[in-house]
Specification:
The chain is mainly alpha-helical. It has seven helices and no strands. InterPro entries: GlbO/GLB3-like (IPR044203), Globin-like_sf (IPR009050), Globin/Proto (IPR012292), Hemoglobin_trunc (IPR001486).
């Protein structure tokens, strides 16, 4: 019987998600639309939270839930005004980060489809 490989394993595990999220937050640090949405002076804690969430979501260790409980993404993002401009800026920074990974086309598409759906679901303000 063939062993099933998770998306997490297929893309390279922890190291790939570490690179992705680090590159994403490098973009956030200089983005005039996104940076104000991160109240912490140091983006490190936000970087850790996103990395742990993505690792767990895609089949890696469940450290995120052990440390933070249920993700409740919409609730956690509710205090921030997120409209189309913020969604698009977030997606632009994530696309840049994903491009640096140079994933195989099918895996890239799966990840990008997830990010576009997730970003749209965080919108809580009219355009």
């Amino acid at each position: 019987m063939a062993e099933q490989v998770t998306f997490y394993e297929a893309v390279g595990g922890e190291e790939t998600f570490r690179r992705l999220v680090h590159r994403f937050y490098e973009g956030v640090a200089g983005d005039p639309v996104l940076r104000p949405l991160y109240p912490e002076e140091d983006l490190g804690p936000a970087e850790d939270r996103l990395r742990l969430f993505l690792v767990q979501y895609w089949g890696g260790p469940n450290t995120y839930s052990q440390e933070r409980g249920h993700p409740r993404l919409r609730m956690r993002h509710a205090p921030f005004v997120i409209g189309a401009v913020e969604r698009d800026a977030w997606l632009a920074r994530m696309r840049e980060a994903m491009d640096d990974l140079d994933l195989p086309e099918q895996l890239d598409a799966m990840l990008w489809n997830y990010f576009t759906m997730a970003a749209q679901s965080m919108v809580n303000a009219p355009s």
